[in-house]
Amino acid sequence: MRRTRGFTLIELLVVVTIVVLLVGMLLVAVQQSRATARRMTCQANLHQWAVGVQHYAGAHGGAIPGRGQGVQQPTVIFDRSDFWFNALPPFIEQEPLIAVKDVRPFRGGDRSIWMCPDLQDTGKPLYFSYGMNMWLSPTKTRRDHIDKLGGTSTMVFMAEGNGSQCSLLPSTQGYSPLARHAANLHIAFMDGHVSIYSADYVGCGLGDPHRHEIRWAVPDSDWSPPSP
Description:
Blueprint: H1 9-59, H2 84-87, H3 97-100, E1 128-133, E2 156-163, E3 167-168, E4 184-189, E5 194-198, H4 199-202
Parallel strand pairs: 1-3
Antiparallel strand pairs: 1-2, 2-4, 4-5
């Protein structure tokens, strides 16, 4: 009679080890795929906002909407129709912030053009995953024009923020841009393109490093930024 040969203990351990390794590799691949999808969503959101400001400028003789409340933290003024978060949405087929949730906070993970998928819910009110360049159109009487920015492909329009500040500037203060994607962040430029940079390169939490391809300062502007 033939004897049926079964797995030895060593063979069984080898099989189990291989299965565990394959499962681990699969989980890593799934996590990387999800992270990539979140980054792409964030990039698409910023691109939409950049398209919106171009359409707005085209309809307003080149003028750019107000960047909203400045260095105060957090932003608490939501009802100004000339601020970007109320002025731009109609140009990208969205509702103004004042009408979206009756100015109730969003939550981390909300799926909308307002929220980056990687913005974590900290329990604090969240309104702005993204903030406009603080140097642009700082007051009602100081409105910048898109054709006077010294090159739209290098002028920052919008970047990722901490959820509570509607305008941003590289700084050691709370209104600095925030890197959410493995120490990287997206920046939208006035010509509509979006690029990703490391936090250090942009100056997050440090101050503006004055990169020639990432310009925050508006030429000939009489607005003085707060101290870094």
